[in-house]
Amino acid sequence: MPGTRPRLSWRTGRASAGFDARRIELTLDGGEPVTHTEEATGQIGVAWPFDPLAARARGTVRVGVRSGGEWSPWSAPLAFENPPLSAEDWRARFVSPRTLGATLTAAPLLSRTVELPAAVTRARLHVTALGLHVTRINGERVTDEELAPGWTSYANRLRFRTHDVTALLRAGGNEITALLGNGWYRGRLYWRGERAFYGDRLALLAQLEIECADGSTHLVVTDESWRAHDTGVLADDLYDGQTTDLRAGRGPAEPVDVLDEPLDRLFPADTPPVRPVAVVPGGVPFRSPSGALLVDFGENLVGWVRLRVRGRPGQEIVVRHAEVLEHGELGTRPLRSAKATDRYLLAGGGAEVLEPLLTFHGFRYASLDGVEPGDIEAIDAIVLSSDLRPTGRFRCSDPDVQTLHDNVVRSMRGNFLDVPTDCPQRDERLGWTGDIQVFAPTAAFIADCSAFLASWLRDLAAEQFEDGCVPFVVPNIHHNILPAAAAWGDAATIVPWTLYERYGDPEVLREQYPSMRAWVERLNAFAGEDGLWTGRFQFGDWLDPAAPPDAPGAARTDQDLVATAHFVRSTDLLARAAEVLGRQDDVERYRALAAKVRAAFAAAYVTPGGRLMNDTPTAYAMALLWDLLPTPAQRAAAGARLADVVRANGFRVATGFVGTPLIADALTDAGYPHLAYRLLLERSCPSWLYPVTMGATTIWERWDSMLPDGRINPGQMTSFNHYALGAVADWLHRRVAGLAPAAPGYREIDVRPLPGHGLTWAEAELETRYGTAAVAWRVADGTLTLDVEVPPGAHATVHLPGRTPERVGAGKHHRQAPLPATPARAETIADAVDDAALWSRLTAIMAAEGIAGDEASAAALAARGLPLPLAELAGVVAPRATPERVEELRRFFDAAVAAHTS
């Protein structure tokens, strides 16, 4: 990030991995090198050791380290250049069309010409807008960034970017133009249809700094000399789409107003821009049952359709978007009030390229009205996303699990569009705090989202209310609501800690600490003396599959239990953050507070025997993972009860937003990894793999967004691109593949894979701050083969069945170990339920005999006697049958068991 005191991170080669000193050399343009040397071992987020840098400072920096008494060669120099850093560095002012560009009218274009006396040797454009801007110099775009300047808490933070435009300028006449769009600033936001949430005037701020070959310098800024024009972009809205008349040229010049907008909210870009990250060709257009011309892009994506067509002047072509088909037609009901429609009026006279620039859509399918297939020369989908560097890769032997993971990646790509949104298609697309809170660990593996989420957290802190309450959405558009919801507000503590844990830089904790502490203090005030957070609005275990379509918050897990559990969780993390930052008084205070709330939770919700008052998977998962059970005996009992609840539900998912990221880890830690696998591999609804069997290419909002009969779920919230329920991918990375951080930034790695249980191999690879870490395992002939790669500067502890844990250093390591033998025969009813193949045989008998219709209902019957011997299964599932009938069923079951074990 640019600034007065940037922080430095670097990687070392294996020979320098154990360095004990470092040196950093700074060379400013026109100056002599300055070197700082110190005895230190850190290499992530190293503090700037020199004098503060000024605005527009340019230079290079390089590093070296000492290992074994020898200094390494210098790294390659890294060039840097600071942009404007304060309001005083700007001469430009915001300008807005005086008579054009009113709400619901054509998008305005601002322009300015400039004469230059000689060739340009260096030019920088610093630019932002109130609204969206597409800026060009001499007809060429200054950047491939889309939807600039993105969405932030505009009242507090307005992002600008600096572009090298040297190659776009020339001696003589030049023209700068900027097309302005409504975007988030003035377009429709929220399902209530509000417009102009941040302001009713679009405006541009641009400062062009030029150096010419003759030694002259020139400053071109937005001021009253600019002019405004109408354009052929007749309408633009993020939800509704864009209407463009390609016949229309630039309108006559009109004056602009200089606005008195504050410049102290400006900040240089701190996150990668939104860019086209892929082009997906459309399939051959086909006709729907109603005769509509449709195109299928093969995957659910975010962006827009680009067409190349031929037609007559004034011909209207309409492109509508949808994620799914229902009965062969575009399924647009999930869009709610969002029109998601782009319209074009052709100029005629040749091939024309049609694509919007001031909107985006979430879709797999599009309808093309007003054009015949023979007039279409090309159809592509332009995929947009924040251009984050991919860092993680996961592969496994089960094709459906692999598709599940691919869908998680695709959903992250579509919803990490400047803000971590809930969905990209309907009249919402908001930065819901609860969604990213549960998904952040998964995201941090898939791509380097450290800067992306750190920027979003700055908005969270800026939007946080004075009493510490955290908005439901960030940027916040619910200004009339004072929210405080468990799991949602806890993004203030959980997301910063996740970034520290996964990337190793404590700066995010230092920066967010006031926000973290304010949230916990707000919870403490809510809870009062008894330590329980009760009696207030909560989302709870949102979208529990048992909740009715029109009541997504009606979960089985008590909302107050969820709230108090999160109170403990956030207080624990705050105490840990205080320890990292050396705030010892806060460490003691918040450890004591966490202990108090933990005791209150146990007194209110935990029985002496380890059962929870709320007998749900989500309740047990939180209690097990967050140390809410006072004694080892209670923890063991709770783990066993969780296993039985999962069995009784037929291994169908019974958790919502809160429980879903936790359930597989809770089962694994409690000693039931085979049941976590059974949950993972279940394909009936609700399950992670049910959408895969239905052809999903992204993660759905609901477990049953598409019903088994092909109808769209009747609920008003039915997105087909919603990453939250894909948070299980974090368990795939850490536990299934076995690549888990054991110290911040993966400086220590815990290699503890879960081989077998339905998979024959799995592998994960991650570009950490230290380099590549990888784990790959395979099972064959009863032997586990494990390959581990550890980056320089890191260590790993490798766990193999029947072996003592082994700590290894940088490099590649190959290990083998025999797998423990599995029991040859099921002894109890629980053993039979846990064995997928055997239980399928037994369930088939129950279905044929009219006892149970499917595996889930059979499991519910068997739950009455899980600890009993398998020989008693017949009496358990048919308690009212005659002795003769029970004996007959026993013979059927015995035969199935014998066939299974033979």
Offer a quick outline of the entry.
With 902 residues, this protein is an alpha+beta fold.
Helix coverage percent = 25-40%
Total beta-strand segments: 40
- Overall geometry comes to globular
> What top-tier CATH class of the largest domain fits best?
Mainly Alpha
Oligomer: single chain
Distance between the termini: 64 Å
CATH architecture of the largest domain: Alpha/alpha barrel
Word description of this protein:
The mean pLDDT is 96. The protein has 902 residues and is α+β, with helices and mostly antiparallel strands. The chain has 19 helices and 40 strands. Strand 21 and strand 22 form a beta hairpin. The N and C termini lie far apart (64 Å). The strands form nine sheets. Strands 16, 17, 20, 21, 22, 23, 26, 27, 28 and 29 form a ten-stranded mixed beta sheet that branches. Strands 1, 2, 3, 4 and 5 form a five-stranded antiparallel beta sheet that branches. It has a five-stranded antiparallel beta sheet with strand order 10-9-12-7-15. The chain has six domains: 14-81, Immunoglobulin-like (Sandwich), CATH 2.60.40.10; 87-268, Jelly Rolls, CATH 2.60.120.260; 274-386, Sandwich (Jelly Rolls); 431-737, Glycosyltransferase, CATH 1.50.10.10; 741-818, Maltose phosphorylase, domain 3 (Sandwich), CATH 2.60.420; 829-901, no CATH class.
